[in-house]
Amino acid sequence: MKNTAQIGLPKTIAIVFGTTGLFTALYLITGTAFPQLPTLLIFCILGGLFLMPVEWFLMLRQSKKDYGKYSLGAALIGQEKQPIIKTIFFALLLFGAAGIFSFTIQPLENMLLSALREKLLSFLPIGFDWNNIEYIKSFPKNIIIATCAVYFIFNVFFGPITEEFFFRGYLTAHNGIYGKRTPIFITIIFSFYHFWLPFQNIFRIFVFLPMAYISYRKKNLYICMASHIFCNLFSTISFIIAVVN
Question: How confident is the model at residue 3 (pLDDT cuts 50, 70, 90)?
Answer without folding.
Answer: low
